[in-house]
Design brief:
alpha/beta; Aminopeptidase; Nitrilase/N-carbamoyl-D-aminoacid amidohydrolase; 2 domains; seven-stranded mixed sheet; 24% strand; elongated
Length: 508
């Protein structure tokens, strides 16, 4: 112990490098020693405020090296090498919204004075001063090597957190208000004492003021409400729209972000067609109401403050009929998605044409796509959507038999796994004896997720009772999608062998 100290906390200067090198070689003897002078001078030039030292008189006895990073990038799994560029130049993002703690070290001769705490406090003050949201760090766990033959790395973290075990680094970090967000694998492979593992640590700046308003911020939890619609005979368009408003009102009352309807949910109106024996005329008769449904459902979306997926409706464009779904946002804007793949029945009996574009739509509750019934059975469409950062696929469907329904269901589950997204299927039930070729329906609406630990064990978030009119709610955590895409048991998107195969949309 030193009897007389004269301590000062200040920013690192280029002239300090010889002393810093001695210190780093002493402390980091097991993981390669000091950074080069080129690296340290680069840190000072890029972010002088982030390089902090403690000196005893003129002797450097402790240091904290720090850079600015993008929070969303480095709050997810990464390695130490992700911070390092050419010639060991360390990346600093001057527009980053978080600090990243590269190194924090104290001369062993000066341990016992809680000097590391001073460096942590200096970092926290810098974080507050710069109005950054957090401090992130990858923390070594050098005590794990002695326990590795007894417990897993995850169990080791839990034991240290419960203070059943002591780790010279993690115990100290936890005592300084850092939280372990996750275990990082192969973070620093040369760190034999930690067996390459590290903790992703985070300290949140409670004074942080986002430049993004609450109104503009991205929702993390999205509530989806789906209507399993009962087909029944009706006397007018108003009868159907009254039912539509009833369900939108109910879903809105439960604070849903989306209301989802089935494919051709208003098909009962074909029963009002003067001559149903001519099915082509019957579907065109139904299409004559589509503009009114689009307008009225858009108004309801605004009035009830909910985004509406209108199921699907026959749309007459010129002399051609398409099967179209609308996204009616609660801000009053409307998007349209045509069904791409037309079933043999639609093509033969109704002479419906397929569309030639797919889109991913931005909403205030995530990025969404719509694939109508048969389209979900073609994996290329959802894979192209997933390349545009898709969160949710909505699948309005209509099936008459259970085997037809199971094709939609099983393909939807596959799409959720393949593309690491949520898939919502929504169908109708009941019967329409007065409508040609639409006698019965079979449906069990559901929401599917990726299949991994963060999600339900069977990858089914929720589902309805089969063939019963009802509404279904699901809360979807969009942050879990980010997690599974980066750190899932498998990575279906990242692990594609694009050097062997690619997929592209042929422009019309």
């Amino acid at each position: 112990m030193h009897n007389e100290l004269h301590l000062n906390v200040r920013n690192l200067e280029s002239s300090d490098y010889p002393q810093l090198k001695v210190l780093m070689d002493k402390v980091y003897v097991d993981i390669g020693g000091a950074w080069s002078e080129f690296t340290i001078k680069g840190l000072i030039e890029d972010f002088a405020e982030g390089q902090i030292v403690i000196v005893d008189r003129d002797k450097v006895i402790g240091a904290a090296l720090t850079v600015q990073v993008d929070y969303d990038r480095f709050s997810n799994p990464h390695t130490y090498d992700d911070l390092i560029g050419h010639r060991e130049a360390i990346h600093n993002n001057p527009n980053g919204d978080a600090l990243y703690g590269l190194d924090l070290l104290i001369d062993p001769e000066y341990r016992g004075y809680r000097l590391g705490r001073r460096l942590y406090e200096a970092r926290k003050e810098l974080c507050k001063k710069a109005n950054l949201k957090a401090i992130l760090a990858g923390g070594r766990i050098p005590g794990y090597q002695a326990q590795a033959d007894k417990i897993s790395a995850s169990e080791y973290l839990q034991a240290v957190a419960r203070r059943e075990l002591y780790d010279p680094i993690l115990t100290f970090q936890l005592s300084n208000d850092f939280q372990v967000k996750r275990l990082l694998h192969k973070y620093l492979p040369e760190d034999e004492k930690s067996l390459g593992y590290a903790t992703l640590l985070e300290w949140n700046n409670y004074l942080y003021e986002s430049s993004e308003t609450v109104i503009d911020s991205r929702k993390a939890i999205v509530r989806v409400g789906a209507v399993q619609w009962m087909m029944r005979e009706v006397e007018s368009v108003d009868d159907v729209l009254q039912q539509v408003e009833y369900f939108i009102d109910a879903l809105s009352s439960y604070k849903s972000d989306f209301a989802v309807f089935p494919e051709f949910f208003n098909a009962s109106l074909m029963g009002l067609c003067p001559d149903q024996s001519q099915q082509v005329e019957a579907i065109r008769f139904l299409a004559s109401f589509t503009e009114r449904f689009r307008i009225e459902m858009s108004k309801l979306a605004v009035s009830y403050n909910i985004n509406v997926i209108t199921g699907s409706l026959p749309l007459l464009v010129g002399d051609e009929v398409y099967n179209a779904s609308y996204l009616c946002r609660r801000d009053g804007t409307v998007e349209c998605q045509y069904k791409i793949h037309i079933t043999p029945h639609e093509r033969r009996d109704w002479v419906i044409r397929g569309g030639n574009e797919i889109s991913v739509f931005e909403t205030d509750a995530g990025r969404v796509g719509i694939l109508i019934c048969y389209d979900i059975e073609f994996p290329e469409l959802s894979r192209l959507m997933s390349e545009k950062d898709l969160d949710i696929i909505f699948v309005p469907f209509w099936t008459d038999t259970k085997n037809g329904y199971l094709r939609v269901r099983h393909c939807a589950q596959a799409r959720a796994i393949e593309n690491e997204c949520y898939v919502v299927i929504c169908g109708s039930c009941g019967n329409l004896p007065s409508v040609e070729n639409l006698d019965v329906q079979y449906a069990q609406s559901a929401v599917f997720s990726p299949s991994d630990f963060a999600f339900p064990h069977d990858a089914i978030v929720s589902e309805t009772t089969a063939n019963t009119e009802m509404i279904m709610f699901s809360d979807l955590d969009l942050d879990k999608l980010k997690h599974v895409r980066s750190e899932g048991s498998v990575n279906n998107l990242k692990d594609r062998r694009t050097e062997l195969y690619t997929l592209k949309w042929n422009s019309q």
